[in-house]
Give the backbone structure.
Amino acid sequence: MTDKDQWPRQLDRTVDAVQDRMVKTRRHLHTHPEVSGEETETTRYLEGQLLSDGFRVRTGPSGLGVIAESAGNGSGPKIALRADLDALPIQDAKAVDYRSTVQGVMHACGHDAHAAAVLGAALALDAADKSGILPWPVSWRAIFQPAEETNQGALEMIEAGALDGVGAMLALHVDPSRPAGTIGHRSGVLTAHCDEMRVLIRGSGGHAARPYESRDPIAAAAQLINAFYVAVPRSLDPRHTVVLTVGSIAAGKRYNAIPDRALLKGTVRSLDEDARGRAMERVREVAEGVARVSGTEIEITFRSGPPSVLNDPGLTDLIRQCAVDLLGADRVHHIGHPSMGGDDFAHYLNRVPGSLFRLGCSGPGTTTTGLHTPDFDVDERALGVGAKILARAVVRWSEPKTHEKEATR
Ligand code: NI
């Protein structure tokens, strides 16, 4: 093995050297979570960390989110690493000393871990560059974005020029269904296109004893939900996955009065555009039918959430190779089916090729609860694994002959 082949292990050691700092960062963010669009202190904290290490940084357009650049000013394209920063309006139920100190807000989706892992990769790449470990020049950008959960942050950062000069992009998301020290990768569709659905039913209110004098929006809502759940799946090709769920229903104040309106909120998630369009069309048709028989007016509004994350085959393979080298092939798994969850990383991938992988984060012998649950936690050894894969992938992608290969394609 020549000196030149030593860099992956040496780079791993620079990640090991910042493991404690990643844990400290993750725990700080976990203790002080901020919801989407309010990541002021989170931004300040990360900005401070990056500035203290001499990075060139700038914040996002709304003062939220941070972008840091590698010291090397290569003329070629950069590779970007993305982390998200927002927490969720969920009460932390854990009994650990780094549990959330903010009432009703917690990092239940692991974005604190994403920020720590990308910070770790950035610190390690910078240290490795300065100590001459890297085999060739690397040029990268770390994007810490706000507001992933509300589908705003990626678009804001793109508008602020986060993708200028970027030729490829990588991200990770913690996955509690996999043990720490393993990852999942998938080329092509990884997540669903998520649409938010709002259904306003207008009737006319009256006395509960005389429903025939009213146009009951609650009765219409009940019919409508049943009709959605029957008609939408029955009119779509089952080989094209779509799921519709009503997650919120609000109507009425008194047990003995019929209200004049009901509001339903839900989501339609799909893995391809044809099925998505057909599902939305069916929702409208069903609503028209129920409006007619119930004598109510039904107004349907869809708001598009993130489109599907479409992972680039070449970059997914790059992650796979880096993960196999680091962890061994038996710890690197192909993801058989896309998730019906969403991720606004999709917006970047509409503009540059990239790949998002799943980072195993459950601990041995512990019950790890799912994402978005009040007991969610991560095995912090996953931070080092994620940072090492990202850092290795940045270096491998920057290998000079890779670009020559692409140029002659
Ligand atoms: Ni998430």
Q: What stands out?
A: The pocket of nickel (II) ion is lined by residues 109, 111, 173 (CB under 6 Å). The longest helix spans residues 273-294. The longest strand covers residues 166-179. The mean pLDDT is 94.
